[in-house]
Amino acid sequence: MTAESVLKAIAGAKNTPLQIGEVSLECYVLEDGTRVFSGSGLQKALKFPTSAGGSALMNMLNTGDLKNHLTTEILAKIESRKEFERPGAGGSVSKTYGYDATVLVDICNLLIECNYLGILTPKQQEYARQSQIIISSVAKVGIIGLIDEVTGYNQHKNRAKDELQKFLSSFLREESAKWVKTFDDSFFEAIYKMRGWSWDYTTKHPGVVGKWINDIVYERLGPMVLTELRELNPVLEKGHRAKKHHQFLSEAVGVPRLKSHLEAAKALAIVSDYDWDKFMRMMDKAYPKHHQQLSLLIEEE
Predict the structure, then answer these.
(1) Is the separation of the CB atoms in 45 and 56 below 8 Å?
(2) 55, 83, 146, 241: which one has the fewest Cβ atoms less than 10 Å from its Cβ?
(3) Domain carrying residue 193
(4) pTM of the entire structure?
């Protein structure tokens, strides 16, 4: 794994563990939103002896009858462990590997099921009994909320929502401005040329052009911009909108950003030799889309 792929923990610390029964577990929220336990933390939860090696749990799951009952979901979570930096940790132990927190519940359910089938060794039966305690202490649907609470990530999400609202307030306006021509003819001419259409300076465009504008322009101006514009400028009963989306962009921030983006789009059209596929690849690289759903941008509690 390269240094560039090492994630940072944005919430969680050694002194804010998750309490499950009698066991205290370090837990973290990574910058990509993943909630994790360390491999040693998983073993600690199941009460593996402290003398057990760091791979003892994984070795157990991959041997004997347990291996035959290991699901693809559990395997995927185990194999997709993520290296991350723990906040405040230094030296050789500043980085560790984290496992999706819900895999603990999956492993517990696996051990409980296999114990019911009577295929566990006496030692594995002890882990199954501990698994039952864990399942009784925290349901799978609640483990994310518990981690967010003890790590302080709920406050982080609230701050992120506040920052998003500040951005949208500066970028948009509640009341539409007077219409001023903003998408000049050269922009549409470039679109038509890339699609192999003839250009005759028309102001009436096929409906698909509007979809392309949403893709090329509004989804790339900022997070939730297109979603908010659709709220401010809804489709009427007759099937059209009363205003143009750009009339709801703020004069100080939104309109200048739009004009700059349109100029960049026209430049990319030229550089791509008016090849649509090449243009879109360049657009995705230079101006990637922003999330337009709050549930994707900021996870709801």
Answers:
(1) no
(2) 55
(3) 159-297
(4) 0.49
